[in-house]
Predict the structure.
Amino acid sequence: MDSLTHLAAGALAPLAFAKTPKRAAVVAFGIAAGELPDIDIFFGSSVEALLVVHRGITHALFWQPLLMLALVCPFFILLHGRKAKQVPLPPGEPASRQGSEAVFFAGPSGMGGFGFGSLCLAALLALGMHVYLDCMTSFGTMALLPFSPMRVALPAIFIVDPLLTLPAL
C-alpha cells in the first residue's frame, strides 16, 4: 500500500477504542504505529537491495510485539512521564472543594486516560493493519518470517487505491 493509506489507517487505529481522547497526540501515535513497519526502506543500500529488504522482517507478524514495544515505550514515557498540571476547579463545583482544595491534578495533557495497555493494543492494531493491507496487494509481504520466506499476497487491492484511502481520510 501507499504511505497515505497506511497513515490514514494508523490514525484511525487508536480511535477505534471506546473512550479514546480525540487529541493530536493520539492521532500522532497512530500515524507513527501505522508507518513504523516501512522503516525498512532505510535498510537497502541500492534499489535492488531495497526490493529484497522491503516488506521483510519489519512486516513479519512474529516481530510485531517487538516493534510495538519500541514504539509504545518512548511515547508512554514522553506523554505520561510529565508532571500533571494543576487545573482550577470549574465555578460550579461544591463549596467543600473550594479554598485550599480549589486545585486538582489533571492527567498529563496529550493522551488523557489512554494508558500503557491501551497504547499497546492500539499499536498492535495499527501494525497489524499495515501488514494486512500490504498482504492484500499483488506484491505481498513476508509476514511469516522467520518461519517461512514466502510472500503472502492476495491481489485484491491496488498498491495505490483511492477507493480505500479516501473514505479513511
Summary: Residues 62 and 147 are 9 Å apart (CA to CA). Residues 116-135 form the longest helix (20 residues).
